[in-house]
TrEMBL record:
Residues 1-23 are annotated as: Disordered. This is Putative oxidoreductase. Residues 236-336 form the FAD-binding FR-type domain. The chain crosses the membrane at residues 35-53, 65-86, 106-128, 148-166, 178-199, 211-231. It comes from Phycicoccus elongatus Lp2.
Length: 470
């Protein structure tokens, strides 16, 4: 392991303070989770009041009633998932990208499994009370029941989304393709609505039930339209953003600076990310998430991205003056979530970009250590900037070089294989438990270093991680 230590320099006069934002407290996440559980309890209560328990007396009635309940819970979870996809700023910043992505995935797969259970139980229940047999019942349900053909199409759309969300399938898809397919989740939710309203007794059993379900759909639709469509367009039309410059930060890496009057109205912190769209031709409809690589100064936004797909490869060809649409800012990977006076920033590869922005925004004189893990020093993205910034802000920069350990899951290079992961962390920062720790990099590397930090005694609320895998 090669450690290159750039010693801290004396603090210098700070430039103009970066724009500060109000970070939603963590209890917002707990409150929203409670609300989501309340929705599921409400769904179950409406099923009970609609006679769900009374129908359990016969085989056909029991199967049908269980099918109704699983379908209702599946629908509610699907709407919750759509709401989580809506990028509502307060929820997104309260949960953070990492927790939100895990919750979105868990809710999505649970909803899909309940949907499959709904199809099986409803079909078996109807077949048990019909003389048409199983296949005759299936044909009758699909062809003769109102809205069922649309529901079948919606189910097919959801199947496509779920299949492409399996990790092995996602690994074989480009981000742009996966993003396009994932939008079919909205289509699936929309196509299921007519079936539920026309044939779903639980939707129409009472005014309360009708108001409840229409209210859920209305809230989810309003959130998607407001925060995924209207807000970005309004910001762009009110105060257009444009590309100011594009620079090659390293081979296969571009730094893009965006400016315009619209930057002034953004409540953003260094380290947060936006979904970016560049109106320069084909492909502009697909947004790509990139973190800021410089602290916001109220005039410009800057990000640095590696060319890993069609969307990011286009960045090198952007021309100054190109119009830009942004959604955000998103994420909790910024200094505002910290609770300690000391900070440890850990990054691998291109993951150093949000860390650079956090370092730049932290007050001069803050006890900061930035660890950058790279294979070779020549591959250290923004290396010169990091060294100059660390010196100017009195921070310590540690560059760790070398190919990875192959004998175990580790965040260390092979040269440091004789150390445990937590020993290496404690050698760099013996006071680890007194620091806020921010981590960004490749998923497996982040998992390894996060686990090491926890084993070394870091409290969970001082660990801040954000993943950008899709």
């Amino acid at each position: 392991m090669t450690l290159i230590l750039d010693p801290p320099a004396a603090p210098t006069q700070a430039r103009a303070a970066a724009q500060r934002s109000t970070t939603p407290p963590r209890w917002w996440r707990d409150a929203s989770a409670t609300l989501f559980w309340a929705v599921l309890v409400g769904v179950t209560g409406l099923w009970v009041s609609g006679g769900g328990i009374q129908e359990l007396g016969t085989l056909g009635g029991a199967l049908t009633s269980i099918g109704r309940l699983t379908g209702l819970l599946s629908s509610a979870l699907l709407l919750i998932q759509v709401f989580l996809m809506a990028r509502v700023p307060w929820f997104e910043q309260a949960w953070g990208q990492d927790d939100l992505a895990r919750t979105h995935r868990l809710v999505g797969f649970t909803s899909f499994n309940l949907l499959l259970a709904h199809l099986v139980f409803i079909t078996l229940g109807y077949a048990a009370e019909s003389s048409a047999g199983l296949w005759g019942t299936i044909v009758d349900l699909v062809v003769n029941y109102p809205g069922m053909l649309l529901a079948v199409a919606g189910t097919a759309a959801l199947v496509m989304v779920v299949v492409t969300s399996i990790r092995k399938a996602r690994a074989r898809l480009r981000y742009e393709s996966w993003h396009l397919i994932h939008l079919y989740g909205y289509l699936g939710a929309g196509l299921a609505l007519p079936h539920q309203l026309w044939t779903g007794a639980d939707f129409l059993s009472s005014r309360v039930a009708t108001a409840f379900w229409w209210g859920l759909y209305a809230v989810c639709l309003a959130a998607v339209v407001a925060f995924r469509v209207v807000l970005p367009l309004w910001r762009s039309l009110r105060a257009p953003l444009r590309v100011v410059s594009v620079e090659a930060a390293a081979p296969g890496v571009s730094t893009v600076t965006v400016g315009g009057r619209g930057v002034e109205g953004l409540d953003v912190r260094g380290g947060q990310f936006f979904n970016w769209r560049f109106l320069d031709g084909p492909g502009w409809t697909r947004a790509n998430p990139y973190s800021l690589s410089a602290a916001p100064d109220g005039r410009t936004l800057r990000f640095t991205a590696a060319h890993v797909g069609d969307g990011s490869a286009r960045l090198a060809g952007l021309r100054p003056g190109t119009r830009v649409l942004v959604e955000g800012p998103y994420g909790r990977l910024h200094a505002g979530v910290g609770t300690r006076s000391k900070v440890l920033l850990l990054a691998s590869g291109i993951g150093v970009t949000p860390m650079r922005a956090i370092l730049e925004e932290l007050p001069i004189g803050t006890d900061v250590t930035l660890v950058h893990r790279v294979r070779r020093r020549s591959e250290a993205v923004l290396g010169d900037e990091l060294r100059a910034l660390a010196a100017a802000r009195g921070a310590r920069l540690v560059t760790i070089e070398g190919t990875r350990v192959t004998t175990r899951s580790s965040w260390l290079p092979a040269q440091a294989g004789h150390l445990t992961d937590e020993q290496a962390l404690l050698e760099i920062t013996p006071d680890l438990a007194e620091r806020d720790v921010f981590i960004c990099g490749a998923p497996a590397w982040m998992d390894a270093v996060s686990a090491a930090a926890r084993r070394a005694g870091l409290p969970a609320d001082q660990l801040h991680v954000e993943r950008f895998t899709y």
